[in-house]
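Example record

The entry below shows one chain as it appears in the dataset: sequence first, then structure tokens.
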Amino acid sequence: MEKTAEIARETELVATLESIDPVESEDPMHIADDRLRLIFTCCHPALAMDARVALTLRTLGGLTTPEIARAFLVPEPTLAQRLVRAKKKIRDAGIPYRVPPANLLPERLDGVLQVLYLVFNEGYTASSGDALVRRELSAEAIRLTRIVVSLLPEEPEALGLLALMLLTDARREARTAADGSLVLLDAQDRSRWDRARIAEGEADLRRALAEGRPGPYQVQAAIAALHDEAATPAETDWAQIATLYRTLAGMTPTPVVQLNLAVAVAMADGPALGLAMMDGIAATGELEAYPYLHAARGDLLRRLERWSEADAAYTRALALTTNGSERVFLEGRLGEVRIRRPAPH
């Protein structure tokens, strides 16, 4: 009954949004795409950024409440309450679902880009289900980001996000084996990477950087470009990637960025140093429910031949992982570790 009521509420909200009159066609900033118009409409600056992004993802982005909760690294009840509060504020304050005029589009851009970024991420690495990739979500995110860039061609972060998506999506076909199992970056067949997509992403990144206003999406795109430029795993410039992650951490000092920095440091300077950084992140408890922290620790502990600790880390990662392809991979790693783990005396 509760689920039916939730669906009814969401259907009513979508119907309300879809009843909005489009902006006038003579407006040079006219948003022709219905879905993108509605995303700009939902990203109202009167709402807190997390609330507007969560609401838009739930209503228009094709993501479920559990998927959004995982994207925000919060429990499902917390995310559900956030959505309820956002809808209540819209109702009580009489915030209109209206497409903003051209001069107000930039103030909503950050929210729109975050929505598209999270939709792409869910498509590139599905948080649940058997398949690693949800192609339709990634493709839609790229399509809509292209439209944003055409609307706001001088916004470097829009270009940076498009570049990031293209440079990342170029590796999609090599990320899974014939049986659908996960293939890590260093084991991928790089001949399967989409070189045309990489070239397009690099060109977009150059255009973005030429604006002289660096931002988080541009930095992430530069990291993706370094991965794509390496002909072999050994040629990856991990020192430069670590430097870029330090820059990114200065812009967005989140635990996930710190974790990615620790991974890069481990690759550049050795697993012991990277593990010390990860242990510091783990000690805060902020990523306790984040499976990639435990999987990354497991990998470094495995490389350091600390088998019992690696077993515990992989076991924790497996308990938190809800994607079937990732579970198969972690089960394989756990099996490898347990073969090497000394028998108890």
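Notes for this example: The mean pLDDT is 84. The radius of gyration is 21 Å.
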